Amino acid sequence: MEAKMNKMEELIQKLNEASERYYGGKEEIMSNFEWDAMFDELAKLEEETGYILPDSPTQKTGYEEAGGEREAHEFPALSLAKTKQITELKKWAEEKEIWLSWKLDGLTLVLTYDNGSLTKILTRGNGETGTNITYLKNVIKGFPLTISYQGHLVVRGEATISYTDFELINAMIEDDDEKYANPRNLASGTLSLDDPEKVKERHVHFNAFTLVHIDETIISWGERMNFLEREGFTVIEREMLKGEQLDEVIERWTKKVETGEMDIPVDGLVICYDDTEYALTGSVTGHHATRAGYAFKWQDVSAKTELLYVEWSCAASTISPVAVFEPVQLEGTTVSRASLCNISEMERLGIGKKSTIEVIKANKIIPKCIAVLKAEGEFDIPKNCPVCGADTKIHVSEKSKTKTLHCTNPDCSAKHGKKFTRFVSKSGMDIDGLSIQTMLKFMNEGFISRFADIYHLSEHAEEIRQMEGFGDKSYENMYKAIEKSRNVHPVNFLYALCIPMIGTDAGKKIVSSIGFDGFMDRLQNGYGFEDIEGIGPEKSNSVLEWYANPKNRASLHNLLTEVSIEQVDMTVKEGGKCEGLTFVITGDVHYYKNRDEFKAYVEASGGKVTGSVTSKTNYLVNNDIESASSKNRKAKELGIPIISEDEFVDRFVK
User: Fold this and answer.
1) Which has the closest alpha carbon to 272: 247, 284, 289, 253?
2) What domain range is 35 assigned to?
3) Which of 447, 498, 531, 535 could form a Cys-Cys staple with 442, CB 3.0–4.6 A?
4) Dist CA 356 CA 305 (whole Å)
5) Residues 387, 389, 390, 395, CA torsion sign
6) 90 and 53: one domain?
7) E-assigned strands of 316-365?
8) pTM of structure
9) 550-560 and 536-548 helices, crossing angle to 10°
10) Same domain assignment for residues 321 and 210
């Protein structure tokens, strides 16, 4: 008994430390695979001994966030019982109708509405109290600020950040102490920021997963979800079934994760009863409501393989190690690479020059090395950057003491990911599908070091087709997008150049006033731009200083040999068809190349385009006129006409 109690204390200490680091944005000390194994071992020991020691994670519903204004939850946010066995789900389901949905891996939020308005947002916290983050209501997507229902409403959901945004954000963070371990960690860290604008940049999305309270009687969970959807919430994907169907449905849903369909992080599935009154009749065991729902977590499948070599890849200021190993089959796909994070993680695992390793696909998506079973020799740390060849240095962070490798060259192209991201963005050259992750791969292969190199990627076509994540179709789509961008609007081109202080608005003012040829003439003759309304001496000097740098000059002139600048007339037409009118444009467009081009026409015709529907809006343009979107609902409430793009063209163009 004493040995078991000592083991329980050891497990509790390790699990709690790992949780604190995981939820607190610090360097992780173990994988979810290892954490789950320890948690299961602790739960088994508690059952065998009949003892539950203080601070046991088996009795916790969440994590106590640091800082922020704490408030008690009106309805405690209890956790769900978890299992990895479908047979247990079937037993729990009984013969009743149930719903299956995703167990999203983010931060749980609780939203309260009164008299049709959002009045409070709390984090889940420890389940009894949470942190008030209502000040972020305008920068989180997925829920309306006003609803048609006028009673008291409480909604619970998960705030998530997609894998795409997670990778992009992390690639742009140069300080290793500030990088995030996973999307859940990033969502948690983001919602603790004080600056709403920084939160907005990270694209946090709320996904409602339960209607906690409504003054009216809606017994069916499915109908409650439909009600939320009609009110404008993003509601979690769901499917109704009976217990005997669970094997087939879980297999089908699992394939969505295994095949990469899910960009939102998930770490399992959840089932709940459709009959919400029956669900309330359950008891509370520890911190689990026995009939509130049941969470299913996938059994992690591991494979043993031989490490072939460690590839070092540069992104921002960090050179990160990637294990390349003999291909193995995991979760229905062939895996041959897994991130090793940093030098400290390699040391923790015990990676050698030759190693037999164990790998999994965390949450069925991300390949991860979880153990070194046998190692010979010591791994090599490169002395030179794989992108520019400059010397490298090892940095030890002050906060986490993590060892990372860095390039010493301040002009290394891999350190300027933000500029390349801006260059290919919709507001820039609009090269769809060329993500920062892809560009960093190309940089590490030596394909890209300056903007103009993007237009020569066809020289590496065969190599790109063979790269992981590519193929003939992916390459062709990328090639078409690059070629399409060769004909570019002058405002988009100015934005893409990444001139400090010159964004889209400043670009419009320059092009409207003197045209692109006038811009080039002034640059080459050293004239300023302060005479242009809205530019002034500060922005003018910024442009001239940028052009005075030989590298920027070369970049500009190299680009002009690759692209054609469209001849456009951006002077505002007096008496234009849109004069004095304010438009809001939402959804996809087809007549115009994109919404920026649409907006440019309106402004050139004397009109104005804003981002939100107000009493001053004259028209909402939306090709989905019957949409239940918040903008459509607002327009209907205010009596503002909703017209399609074709109607706009008929009225204001032809």
Assistant:
1) 289
2) 2-59
3) 447
4) 6
5) positive
6) no
7) 318-330, 333-339, 354-362
8) 0.61
9) 80
10) no
- Residues 424, 370: one domain? no
Chosen domain end from 467, 485, 503: 485
Strand partners, 113: 118, 153
CB distance 235 to 225 below 8 Å? yes
**Domains contained in the chain, number:** 6
Q: What is the CA 294 to chain-centroid distance, rounded?
A: 27
Do the domain assignments include residue 571? Answer: no
Return the ∠ at Cα 647 (arms to 642 and 648), rounded to 5°.
85
- By CB neighbour count within 10 A (0-12 exposed, 13-18 middle, 19+ buried), where does 132 fall? middle
Token duo for residue 217: 């009687």
- What pLDDT band is residue 599 in, cutting at 50, 70 and 90? confident
Find out whether 176 and 397 touch, Cβ atoms under 8 Å. yes
CATH of the domain at 449: 1.10.150.20
Q: Which active-site residues does the annotation give?
A: 103
Q: What is the DSSP letter of 87?
A: H
What pLDDT shows up at residue 163?
85
CB 448 within 8 Å of CB 456: no
- Residue-wise pLDDT for 554-574, tens only, equals 999 999 999 999 987 766 666
For residues 47 and 93, state if they share a domain.
no
Q: Where are the alpha helices (DSSP H) in 446-568?
A: 461-466, 472-484, 490-496, 504-525, 536-548, 550-560
List Cβ<8 Å contacts ≥24 apart for 175-183. Answer: 176/318, 176/342, 176/395, 176/397, 176/402, 176/404, 177/397, 177/398, 177/399, 177/400, 177/402, 179/318, 180/25, 181/22, 181/27, 181/28, 182/105, 182/265, 183/105, 183/106, 183/265
Strands in 642-643's sheet, in edge-to-edge order, are 608-610, 582-586, 619-622, 642-643
Question: What pLDDT band is residue 543 in, cutting at 50, 70 and 90?
Answer: very high
* 128/230 same-domain check: yes
The C-alpha atoms of residue 125 and residue 547 are separated, in whole angstroms, by: 51
Compute the distance between CA of residue 39 and CA of residue 94 in angstroms, rounded to an integer: 27
User: Which of 521, 540, 565 corresponds to the end of one domain?
Assistant: 565
Q: 3-class DSSP state for residue 210? A: strand
Give pairs for 14-17: CB < 8 Å, separation 24+. 14/38, 15/39, 15/42, 15/57, 16/55, 16/57
- Would you say residue 271 lies in a domain? yes
pLDDT tens by residue, 613-623: 888 899 999 98
**Could you tell me if residue 574 is inside a domain?**
no
Helix 163-172 × helix 417-424 angle, to 10°:
130
Report d(CA 594, CA 577) in Å as an integer.
20
Q: pLDDT above 90 covers what percent of the chain?
A: 43
Yes or no: say if 631 and 596 are a contact pair by the CB < 8 Å rule: no
CATH (domain of 625):
3.40.50.10190
pLDDT tens-place string over residues 492-501: 999 999 998 8
Handedness of CA 408, 413, 417, 419 (dihedral sign): positive
Residue 90: Cβ-neighbour burial (10 angstroms; 0-12, 13-18, 19+): middle
Say yes or no: 539 and 419 in one domain: no
Decide if 148 is inside a domain.
yes
Provide the b/e sequence for 262-271 (b: ≥16 CB within 10 Å).
bebbbbbbbb
Q: Are residues 290 and 157 in the same domain?
A: yes
